[in-house]
Amino acid sequence: MVTSKAAVDAIQAVKRQEFLSASPSQLLRLALKDLAEVEKMPDYRIDMTFWMRNIISMGDKEVCYVCLAGACLVRRYSADRSRVDKIINSREPEDQQIYMRMCALDCFRQGQVAEGLRYLGFQLKPEMSYLYPVMPYFQDVELAKEDMADLAELLEAHGF
């Protein structure tokens, strides 16, 4: 019989594998789904400047600030700040792969297409623009998410 902890661990393993094997367009879509879930979580706030900022007290409540990439760490790795530090400083192949995907997501949310693809081991196709206009999240949350979803469509249309 599968215990609830075993079931949760199995689900997390599937989510991690999905994150590690996703194409660039799939990765951006997964991140947007994770972001939407984390936006609803009372212990988190979105701040696109850091992957994950230390927990900050807000009155009687502690809140952790995460960005698009940090939302993936929360949803797929149940990560906290110590896990982020380990990923950044690790020489383990899986941690390095996670790190490169996090960097790619940072680039994509800023519209830096070529750089994001480079982090994932791809080269920009000649017919593609290096940059894609993405509204900053802090200026207009919904438009920023729409722009990132459109970028995912563009990446997919070009085989990424």
Short recap of the structure:
With 160 residues, this protein is mainly alpha-helical.
Polypeptide structure, described:
There is one protein chain. This protein has helices at 4-21, 24-39, 68-77, 81-89, 93-109, 113-119, 141-157; strands at residues 44-46, 52-58, 61-66. Helices cover 59% and strands 10% of the residues. The chain is mostly helical. It has one domain (23-157). The chain is built from 7 helices and 3 strands, in the order ααβββααααα. A hairpin with a 2-residue loop joins strand 2 (52-58) and strand 3. It starts with a helix and ends with a helix. The protein is globular. It has a 3-stranded mixed β-sheet with strand order 1-3-2.
